[in-house]
Structure formats: C-alpha cells, structure tokens
C-alpha cells in the first residue's frame, strides 16, 4: 500500500507541486507555466515545506498575472539564497524574467530564450510615463534588490521598457544578455 502511495506521489518524477513550481527533490524545484495572482502564497508554502531548496530551474514560463505578487515571491526566492538556472530549452518571458533575476546566482545554457517587453496595468503602459516618473520606481528598486546598482537597474529597466510594447515580446540577444548582466556567470 505504501509503495502505491509513493508511486502516485512521484508521478512525472516530481515529489510535489505548488502552482507552477514542481518539486524535483529537497534542494531543487522546476518552474513551468505562468504565475497566477497568488504565486507569492504558493511559493511561501513551498518554502515552508521545502526549506532546503537551493536551485530553481525554468521550463516554459510566459510571465506573471500580478507583478506585486510575483515580486513578493521573488523576494522570498532571493532572501532564501536560491539560485536560478535556464536550460537550453527554457523560455522565460515578461514577469518570469523578473522572477529569474531574483536568483542569488543566475546561470543559463545557450539556446535558452529571455523575452521582455514594457508592462501594462490594463489601462496604461510603462511607456506612457516619462523617464524618472514614480511609476517606474517599483521595478528599479526591485532590480537593485536583485543585486544591480541603481545605474544598472535603470539601464536594464528602460531597455526592457523600450524593447517591445506590452502586447509584443522581444527576445534578448546574447550580447544584450551579457550587457545587461542577466546572468551572474
């Protein structure tokens, strides 16, 4: 009976699941899918149940539905010293890029895709606000939290804002990934 329970819990090779987060083992988690409106609660529950997680790898992650919730989850990721990694087949876009940036150490394999664009609140786009406007501060402060200097954070943020409209996506080149220090190695 116990064996049947173990096999059922190990379906698809994952020990457990919290929204887009799939537990691979006590120290690693795989993220696949978009981040729901309550991704912070799901990630907090994951950290409570698996406090020894040190690595998050990404699959196909189109972004977040609620940036404030994503940032709270990302704060937990960074404050817990979790590293982030992109496999060659990984595709991260929009808020998933911001989430990836919270990694203590950020690594990637060639072939992975990093897609960025300007944000929108449904009514206005980040492009509707002038450089230096208070609406931009949440993201600039977040990037400094992720280890960027203020100058680097502003440079990255305005690059992202000017890369594509909220309804489009721009995949960063290898040179841009290096220039904007998306990875730490």
Describe this structure in words.
The protein is an alpha/beta fold. The protein is built from 7 helices and 8 strands; from the N terminus they run αβββαβαβαββααβα. The chain has helices at about 1-10, 40-50, 65-80, 95-100, 135-145, 150-165, 175-180; strands spanning about 15-20, 20-25, 30, 55-60, 85-95, 105-110, 115, 170. Strands 1, 2, 3, 4, 5, 6, 7 and 8 form an 8-stranded mixed sheet that branches. Strand 2 and strand 3 (about 30) form a beta hairpin. The longest helix has 14 residues, at about 150-165. The radius of gyration is 17 Å and the shape is globular.
Give keywords:
185 residues, 2-enoyl-CoA Hydratase, Chain A, domain 1, eight-stranded mixed sheet, 7 helices, 21% strand
**Which residues form runs of ≥5 with pLDDT under 50?**
1-11
User: How large is the count of helical segments?
Assistant: 7
Question: What is the CA-based Rg, rounded?
Answer: 17 Å
Shape: globular
Say what the CATH topology is: 2-enoyl-CoA Hydratase, Chain A, domain 1
Number of separate structural domains: 1
Number of strands: 8
How far apart are the first and last residues' alpha carbons, in Å? Answer: 46 Å
Main beta-sheet annotation: 8 strands, mixed
In CATH terms, what is the architecture? Alpha-Beta Complex
Helix content: 25-40%
Provide the structure class: alpha/beta
Q: What is the strand content?
A: 15-25%
